[in-house]
Amino acid sequence: MDANLFWDKVKKAISTKGKTFVWLCEQANVDVQIMKNRIYKGRIPDVEDTLKLLAVLGTTVEEFFGVEEQFPPKLAVACAGDMEKIPVFEQLFSCGKGQFSQDSEYVDSYIAIPDDLKTKRLKGHLAACKIRGDSMEPTIFNGDTIICDDYGYQEDGIYAILFEGKSFVKRLQRVSGGMKIISDNPAYESMFAKNDTEELKIIGKVYYILHKV
Questions:
Q1: Residue 24: how many other CB atoms lie within 10 Å
Q2: What's the predicted TM-score (pTM) here?
Q3: Beta strands in the chain (DSSP E)
Q4: pLDDT over threshold 80, residue 77
């Protein structure tokens, strides 16, 4: 099922109930603007949001998508209860001068969780994202995929961050007065975030870097 058909069916289901799109989003506890952006960009919501919307509409994945069509790959993973895979988000993190953070995250695919990350602490707290740029070479290369958690800062190391409205993967070092944001590539200067700044959001620690071969 393509995105246009998906949203057409959602609109018909809303109309049948005599409700509005805003009502649906509020009941499903999903962001209205993000959903509108996905309609505009011609995208189906991610697994979690799709299941929330369908629950409010009083339907199931089988009923909505049609048994004869097979489940969409992403929903099949979720409905199968496959806890051994994590989402790869389309959001690109920059290893360069900074990638403007998107207003939504779209699940591009799923990858298997490395065995040493299958812990109780990390369960449900891992995600993967693609990298653009060369500022972290020779550690991370353009086109690599990282696996990180969502626990924020834990200790000095490599992290996925948002800084001054842009997304980066950088090496963080706690120093007097704030956080030093370091590129492994010496061609790039380090940045600095003061302790009281609201411009730095640390998403989580990078555990794996998957290189292309």
A1: 21
A2: 0.60
A3: 85-94, 99-100, 107-112, 126-132, 145-149, 157-163, 166-175, 178-182, 191-194, 200-210
A4: no
Paired tokens of 171? 């090496």
Bridge pairing between strands 126-132 and 85-94: parallel
List pLDDT tens digits, range 35-60. Answer: 888 887 778 887 778 888 989 999 88
**Dihedral (Cα; 195, 198, 204, 210), 10-degree rounding:** -110
Q: Are 8 and 16 in contact (CB under 8 A)?
A: no
Residue 55 tokens read as 């629950």
Helix (H, G, I), strand (E, B) or coil at 22: helix
| Confidence at residue 170, expressed as pLDDT on a 0 to 100 scale | 95
Whether 140 contacts 131, CB under 8 Å: yes
d(C-alpha 41, C-alpha 3), whole Å: 9
What CA–CA distance (Å, rounded) separates 168 from 148? Answer: 13
